[in-house]
Design goal:
Low-confidence stretches: 1-32
Strand content: under 5%
Shape: elongated
Distance between the termini: 60 Å
Mean pLDDT: 90
Helix content: 55-70%
Radius of gyration: 26 Å
Order of helices and strands: HHHHHHHHHHHHHHHHHHHHHH
Bound molecules: heme C
Number of domains: 3
Length: 464
């Protein structure tokens, strides 16, 4: 099978190159950028009924069809993030699709490109999509600035924290990754600030990932989507998932694998033919696996490229990628995944000068954790070194009393089940206490109020 497909690829390449080199004598066909009116040619020569098939199944010289990289079973992302000006959109589809032997850019013949463009045009009309001009994947949260969400002194309640609307109403000062980094004037395939990566996991891993992807293309329903995301996730080695450990140091490749999965995630989230939306969860136990893991993991690999390499492997645009992806991932489940949300995201926010937001994120994560999670206690420690100083006393007071009340009421949520969790927690509570004692902003009364609270939690944990 494999040899046969190689042979096919070879024959195809010879045909492809010879076809295209004959096009070479008619320059406008291979330098599409110079032809002004592509829309008319698409109407004249393009057949929308042929386009989807070509999008899915017409391999380029590297054996990859559009869907290998763009991943949407229908190409809907090209419509959704496309240009609202339909002439501009037509021309950009042609520019990107047509193979140019001089630059090596592009993928298919001009005839095929017309069909694909005609199909995408009809998809826009049938789905009544208003293209968003490659604006952000979800709206950038705007509204109240973090320092105005709370005054730092009014006692907090769990209900109040749950009403903080991070997705829509608490402003951030940084960007989310765009769908495409490039535009009609600039092809930026190697830029790493966007979703679509240069690699594709289908080619890199084949096997189970291809099988799950085929099933998803045939029926892109939520169960097939979950199965595909899980298969892709577990196709990675431990090192690929945690570069900097397991003797694996290729941070760029790891980061691209996660972006590939993140692309898969978001094309499904924007697709109008399913009922899945950003932030929805599909797995029965999200503390083990969340459908949105790739978003968080992309940010985490950016972070690791600074901390875990030998200092030379930091990926390009590291802090922007770290912060944008971690925050996007966090917005899906607010810490219910039980990763190190508050340490990692909190640190990135603090590094970026967003200490108020870091404090709010820690408080929200703490009340979103799953039952029995050690992270509830870790969040208290996170507050002790990441909180905005002016908010530390108030935030710490809420966090400690929240846990103490739960423990006093025998709420099983706060009970740690494993001995190693208790050991780590007691250590962290020790550091928490030190951080409070060493903090130069807190006055002695504030310290005298907080320290017994931390001690009291430590007593509970010791006796669990
Ligand atoms: C090898 C992977 C790969 C294949 C195959 C591929 N693309 Fe792309 N495509 C990309 C990447 C990566 C970007 C984003 C690059 C950038 O930002 O400049 C992109 C961007 C685009 C854009 C967006 C341009 C813009 O700025 O708005 C369009 C349209 C597009 N591709 C269409 C196609 C079509 C149609 C096909 C099939 C004929 C195709 N692509 C095949 C990787 C691929």
């Amino acid at each position: 099978m494999k040899a046969l497909s190689q042979l096919f690829k070879l024959i195809y390449s010879i045909w492809f190159v010879s076809t295209l080199s004959s096009c070479n004598k008619t320059p406008p066909q291979i330098t599409p950028i110079k032809q002004v009116n592509w829309s008319d040619s698409i109407s004249q020569y393009g057949s929308s009924s042929l386009g989807l098939e070509l999008y899915l199944d017409q391999p380029d010289l590297n054996g990859r069809s559009c869907v290998n990289c763009h991943l949407s079973p229908t190409g809907f992302d090209l419509v959704f993030f496309g240009k609202s000006n339909s002439r501009a959109q037509d021309s950009i589809i042609i520019q990107r699709a047509v193979f140019d032997p001089q630059t090596g850019h592009g993928h298919v013949s001009i005839g095929d490109a017309y069909h694909i463009a005609a199909y995408l045009r009809s998809l826009r009309i049938s789905t009544q999509t208003v293209p968003n001009n490659n604006s952000t994947v979800v709206p950038i949260p705007s509204g109240i600035s973090p320092e105005n969400v709370w005054n730092g002194t009014t006692p907090l309640t769990e209900m109040q924290i749950n009403n903080w609307d991070f997705r829509n109403n608490i402003a951030i000062s940084f960007e989310f990754p765009k769908w495409f980094a490039g535009d009609e004037t600039n092809s930026l395939a190697h830029d790493n600030t966007d979703f679509i990566p240069e690699i594709d996991l289908l080619t890199a891993k084949e096997g189970d990932v291809s099988t799950a992807f085929e099933a998803y293309l045939i029926d892109p329903n939520n169960p097939n989507f979950l199965a595909l995301m899980q298969t892709a996730h577990y196709s990675l080695t431990e090192g690929e998932r945690h570069p900097g450990e397991h003797n694996y140091y290729n941070f760029t490749t790891s980061f691209d694998y996660q972006r590939w999965m993140a692309t898969l995630y978001f094309q499904h989230a924007i697709d109008p033919s399913n009922n899945f939306n950003f932030g929805d969860e599909l797995s029965p136990n999200i503390s083990n696996f969340s459908i949105a893991d790739a978003l968080w993991d992309a940010g985490n690999i950016a972070r690791r490229s600074q901390d875990n390499g030998d200092g030379t492997q930091e990926i390009d645009n590291r802090l922007q990628n770290e912060l944008g992806w971690l925050y996007l991932g966090w917005l899906t489940n607010y810490g219910a995944r039980n990763s190190f949300e508050t340490q990692y995201l909190g640190t990135a926010l603090k590094d970026y000068g967003e200490e108020h937001l870091a404090t709010l994120v820690i408080l929200k994560s703490m009340i979103s954790r799953s039952d029995h999670s050690q992270l509830i206690y870790d969040d208290i420690f996170s507050l002790s070194y990441l909180s905005k100083d002016e908010w530390l006393a108030g935030a710490m007071n809420f966090a400690c009393n929240h846990v103490i009340n739960g423990l006093n009421n025998n709420n099983p949520r706060f009970i740690l089940l494993q001995d190693d969790q208790k050991t780590v927690t007691l250590n962290n509570l020790g550091y928490t206490k030190q951080n409070i004692i060493n903090n130069n902003f807190l006055d002695s009364t504030q310290k005298q109020n907080l320290i017994p609270l931390v001690d009291s939690i430590a007593d509970f944990v010791t006796n669990m």
